[in-house]
């Protein structure tokens, strides 16, 4: 057998989805074996040589009681992260489209806690993104005390930003006009600034009025995206902390609009927005990627068209990437 045939591993089914142009490869790791090393994720994320995506989303069985699924997220640079808001909405649509559940309210375990997804009409999903974390060590952000606005030295420049965690770290800068904001220049420098020891997503926020903003986000591990759901939540929290916004705000991103609601300190942030499923695909993994294949009933269920919800609590046929 030739070397290339020996290196051929099993097929992996995936779905390409997006939330306002923030795009995802979504993999059901309940019904099929799945493991990808960071370099393989980077190859697949490549827009010229791979499938192309901002994040890889992985659906796993829950590890907690009263939770429906575990949700894992990998940036296009291969790093595993705690939260992805646009991804959470697509996650809800995916598990229903794939008949992994028929629930309309889905509880999902992330690396930073449990979030709740509510499926609405016409592909709309509302996500309870949890209570924002403003305490610097928990973000994490280097500061001796909590403030609503911090001054950060950036080479020869000084910038003012708010630091917020939505499960993942965000820095939010106020700008006069997002179209001319220095996203490409300040974004990468702030993403890996020493005051954000876990790196951060950097949002550039333009206030239109108390209920409407424009936003661009330079995402940690993915670069500028068409939209960032957790970034929209962090931006509204930052705007409210500065006294500039009401509790319900329309956030206009490059890829479209999200509605974000925050009633203030101690309250969770609610995010509402659309989802889109683009295509389903199959790729062959290299032979050394996944662990040994375990028995799965996914394919026979798919053929007979039965609901696969009952398989949810089986052991995952997967291991950590
Ligand atoms: N696009 C996402 C955020 C994805 C993760 C982020 N890049 C990070 O590293 O924290 C969203 O919609 O929230």
TrEMBL record:
Kinase found in the keyword field: no
GO terms under biological process: lysine biosynthetic process via diaminopimelate
GO CC terms: cytosol
Enzyme Commission number(s) of this protein: 5.1.1.7
GO molecular function, one term: diaminopimelate epimerase activity
Main location (coarse class): cytoplasm
Pfam families documented for this protein: DAP_epimerase (PF01678)
Residue numbers spanned by region Disordered: 283-321
Site label Important for dimerization, positions: 279
Substrates-to-products reaction catalysed: (2S,6S)-2,6-diaminopimelate = meso-2,6-diaminopimelate
Sites annotated Could be important to modulate the pK values of the two catalytic cysteine residues: 170, 219
Enzyme class, UniProt record, top EC level: isomerase
Pathway involvement of the protein, from the record: Amino-acid biosynthesis; L-lysine biosynthesis via DAP pathway; DL-2,6-diaminopimelate from LL-2,6-diaminopimelate: step 1/1
Assembly: Homodimer.
Function: Catalyzes the stereoinversion of LL-2,6-diaminopimelate (L,L-DAP) to meso-diaminopimelate (meso-DAP), a precursor of L-lysine and an essential component of the bacterial peptidoglycan.
Family the entry assigns: Belongs to the diaminopimelate epimerase family.
Name of the protein: Diaminopimelate epimerase
Species the sequence originates in: Marinobacter salarius
Gene field: dapF
């Amino acid at each position: 057998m030739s070397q290339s045939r020996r290196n051929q591993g099993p097929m992996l089914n995936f779905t390409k989805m997006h939330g306002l142009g923030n795009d995802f490869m979504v993999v059901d790791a309940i019904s099929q074996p799945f493991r990808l090393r960071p370099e393989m994720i980077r190859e697949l994320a490549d827009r010229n040589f791979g499938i192309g995506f901002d994040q890889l989303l992985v659906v796993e069985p829950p590890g907690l009681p009263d939770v429906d699924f575990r949700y894992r997220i990998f940036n296009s640079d291969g790093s595993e992260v705690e939260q992805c808001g646009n991804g959470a909405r697509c996650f809800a649509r995916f598990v229903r489209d794939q008949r992994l559940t028929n629930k309309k309210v889905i509880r999902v375990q992330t690396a930073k806690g449990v979030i709740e997804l509510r499926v609405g009409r016409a592909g709309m999903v509302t996500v309870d993104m949890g209570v924002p974390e403003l305490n610097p060590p928990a973000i994490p952000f280097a500061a001796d005390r909590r403030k609503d606005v911090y001054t950060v030295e950036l080479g020869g420049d000084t910038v003012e930003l708010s630091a917020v965690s939505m499960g993942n770290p965000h820095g939010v800068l106020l700008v006069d006009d997002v179209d001319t904001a220095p996203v490409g220049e300040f974004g990468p420098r702030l993403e890996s600034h020493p005051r954000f020891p876990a790196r951060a997503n950097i949002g550039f926020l333009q206030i239109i009025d108390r209920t409407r903003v424009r936003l661009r986000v330079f995402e940690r591990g993915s670069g500028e995206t068409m939209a960032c759901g957790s970034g929209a939540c962090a931006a509204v929290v930052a705007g409210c902390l500065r006294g500039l916004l009401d509790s319900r705000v329309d956030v206009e991103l490059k890829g479209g609009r999200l509605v974000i609601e925050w009633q203030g300190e101690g309250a969770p942030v609610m995010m509402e927005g659309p989802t889109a499923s683009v295509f389903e695909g199959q790729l062959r993994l290299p032979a050394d990627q996944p662990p040994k294949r375990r028995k799965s009933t996914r394919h026979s269920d798919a053929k007979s068209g039965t609901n696969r919800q009952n398989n949810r609590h089986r052991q995952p046929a997967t291991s950590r990437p």
